[in-house]
Design goal:
Helix content: under 10%
Low-confidence stretches: none
Strand content: over 45%
Structural class: mainly beta
Number of strands: 11
Shape: globular
Mean pLDDT: 96
Number of helices: 0
Oligomer: single chain
Largest sheet: 7 strands, mixed
Length: 115
């Protein structure tokens, strides 16, 4: 099992930056894959970025090079650096982990981008 705790959300103006953190209760080195999802009001949850155990990353098309996912195994933490934020990036951002055939989710952190 793994518990995930997100932090770093907040209110930012369009064009600004935020860095989200996801602290895991166990070594991220052993977690098959971790990711960030987001869910805006009235919309389905969608994948933002994923990082696999070998370090490979992938991003949703809407990221357009603005976000970077990274993992610090020494701190058991996954980050999402978000730059050039847009109002349409406003959503609750969730940390996700896939471990031993199970899916785990954090509680989410709110990101609000004002125009």
């Amino acid at each position: 099992q793994v518990q995930l705790v997100e932090s770093g959300g907040g209110l930012v103006q369009a064009g600004g930056s935020l860095r989200l953190s996801c602290a895991a209760s166990r070594s991220t080195f052993s977690i098959n894959a971790m990711a960030w999802y987001r869910q805006a009001p009235g919309k389905e949850r969608e994948l933002v970025a994923r990082i696999r155990i070998g370090g490979s990353t992938s991003y949703a098309d809407f990221v357009e090079g603005r976000f970077t996912i990274s993992r610090d195994n020494a701190k058991n933490t996954v980050y999402l650096q978000m730059n050039y934020l847009k109002p349409e990036d406003t959503a609750v951002y969730f940390c996700y982990a896939y471990l031993d055939g199970y899916n785990y989710w954090g509680q989410g952190t709110q990101v609000t981008v004002s125009s």
